[in-house]
Fold this protein.
Amino acid sequence: MKLFRKRDFITVGFILAFSAAAITLFYKILKPVETLPIYQPAEVNEELVDSSVIHVSKYHKISDFELTNQNGQKITQEFYSNKIYVADFFFTTCQDICPIMTKNMYKLQEELKNDNDILFLSHTVIPEVDTVEQLKKYAIENNVDDSKWNLVTGEKKQIYDLARKSYLAVEDAEYGKFDMIHTENFMLIDKQRQIRGFYDGTNDEEIEQLISDIKILKKLNYD
């Protein structure tokens, strides 16, 4: 004697499939979407922000720029168009935090070397010393991948303005006009040229957090 007819199995299968789909949908609704903040000048330590933008609380973006990289090539915002990138400020003769920052930027470069959507940008804060030749020497010594990572120099005022009006990343030095005291910060910049995170470039745990946040940002840009 048959306990179940064929159509009973079909009905049960339909109920199970429907239940699985409902549970999955319910889980997605309840699960919070991972996101990242968008940082504005008004939210950042005022010591790192130029007074002209300190009160800006929305719509902040990285300004246009034209600088020169380690190969003597002009680098503008177009190089980073539709890309996610990590930026910082340094100088090649720094013996304090810069070697650690460079080591960790190299770690990011290697971790993400096969991801064509991720790039890197390091600005010197003493362009009068960090010439193209000096940057090239530093790039070779630190295994910089020219296709992913630009070390840039240029006119000092432009770098100063970028640092304090766009990236919100350096302190204003009192010993000369447009002189800067760079921080250990790495800045995560999205495809809309917005700041999505600040990270201690000398801290291994924060570097891991940065890698994790890049993955979140990629989902936000593509999903």
About this structure: The chain has two domains: 1-31, 41-222. Helices lie at 6-30, 98-111, 132-141, 156-166, 204-222.
